[in-house]
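Entry 12.
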Amino acid sequence: MKAMSGVIIFIVVLAIISVAFPIKVKNGLIDKDETVKESWKQIETQLQRRADLVPNLVSTVKGYATHESEIFTAVAEARSKLLAAKGPQETGIASGLLNGAMGKLLAISENYPNLKADTSFIRLQDELAGTENRIAVVRTRYNKNVKIYNASIRKFPGSLFAGKMGLKKAEYYEPPNVQSLQTPPEVKF
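Predicted 3D structure (C-alpha cells):
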C-alpha cells in the first residue's frame, strides 16, 4: 500500500512538472518578446520627440539664413523618411540620414553669430542634445533586451517552443555611420 501511494505521488508530481514546465518556458518567451516590443516603443518615442524638435529648429535657423533652402529641404526629407520608417534597420538608416542633415543645419550657425546667440536656438540645441542622450540610453536597453530574447529562443528549452509560437529573431538597432550613407566625392584629373 505504501509503495502504491509513493508511485501515485510520483506520477502526480511528474504530471504537474510536465504541464508546468512548458507553461513556464512559453510564458518566459512571451515576456521577453513583449519586453523587446516595449523597448522598441521607447526608441520610437524618443525618435518622434527628436523629429518634433526639427521643425522648430529649422524655423529658427530660417530666420537668420533664409537662402539655405537646400539644407532645409534635406532636413525635411530626412525627417519624413524617419517618420515613415518601419523596423530597426530602416529606422537606423533614416535616423542616420537625419543626423547628417541636422549636422549641416547646425553647422550653419557658425556663419551667423546672431543665430548662435539666439536663446530659442540655444534651447532647441540643448533639447536636441538631451534627446540624443535619451535615444542612446533606450537604444542600449533595447539591444540588451534583444540579446536576451534572441538567446532565449535559440537556447534549449526555448528553441523547442519558439518556432511553434511564431517567435523570430529580433533585429538590433544600430544607426549606421552617416558618412557611409553619403556618396563619396568623385575625384577627376
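Annotation: The first helix runs from residue 2 to 62. The domain at 42-169 is CATH 1.20.1440.20 (de novo design (two linked rop proteins)).
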